[in-house]
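Form 7-S
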Amino acid sequence: MSRVFAIVKKDLAQILRNRFVAVISVLFIVIFAVMYYLLPSGVDEVFKMGFYLEIGEQAAAEFGLEGGENEIASRLSEAGKEEAEEGLQLIWAESTEDLKRMVEEEEVSAGVSFIISDQEPELVLYVSSKTPEEVIEAGEAIGSEIGYALIGYELPADFQATVIGQDMAGQQIPMRDRMRVILLTFVFLLELFSLGNLLMEEVQRKTALALLVTPVTLGDFISAKAITGILNTFFLGLLMALLLGAVSANTWVAILVLLFLGAAMMVGIAFIVGSLSRDFISMSMIAMIPFVVLVIPGFLVIYPGFDSPILKAIPTYWLLEPINGILNYGMGLSDYTMSLVYIVLFVMAFFVLGFVILRRRLA
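Output:
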């Protein structure tokens, strides 16, 4: 064990002596923290409202709507004048399906479908899964006003909002809080270059072979590199988490566990990158491949509708999901047991693969 710690001490000193890696790591953390605090801390509640009206001839004559869209638009403008001044904009839809599409694709934040036939008028409010609860309540009030403006009396029954997608009412997250999940991921991914460069240099300069002719075994060598990488990544991630306000009395245990697992995962991938690299240029090119792939699940945090089964094959999906849930939705670590299991499996797989590749390089 003393041999392992001696190598760890040497590696940490070598990382600090590498001015490029040291400066870039600290610089990125500072830049990310500044970006976080510059992003808006609130949520924009103003929304566009889609509108679809279907009316029979007899009903049109009864309610004086023979003037068609112009007459309807005139009444709606009068009814919604005050709201429109505060940011409400009505956009016409060609059909109910078109209205749903507009809501689902976020062209509008809410949509009202009003069908007036010879029977009881039917009024439906469609909202996006990301529409704030207060906006839904406003939409319901405006929908009632629209119905009153067109038929001249209050509808006989209340109507409820129909949510398209997962209902996240009351759970709107400011963009900067979504971004801090991705910024933490970038800190993890920096380890691909840091430890990857360290391994590449030791292999190319024959330092690793020189160590292995001493009592140091390959197991000692890999253990030391793993400890070095995990310590470096963990503390950089912890520093970033503190700067971004991600560590609190309720989240610190979960964040520490996820930071450790994330660091271990990145170290396993960095072993593969460093073992396959011939020089700094090749190391940078090879590291960019997992870097780009591993950052893709971050788009799921910014755009919750951006989902695909393929994302679940990317290791960072299982890391970002619990971090996002714990930081932004008040979930507990116990809610993500399967995510933790998948992360551990990925860590083991990457370490085994990295060990095999590195052993062949040193053979």
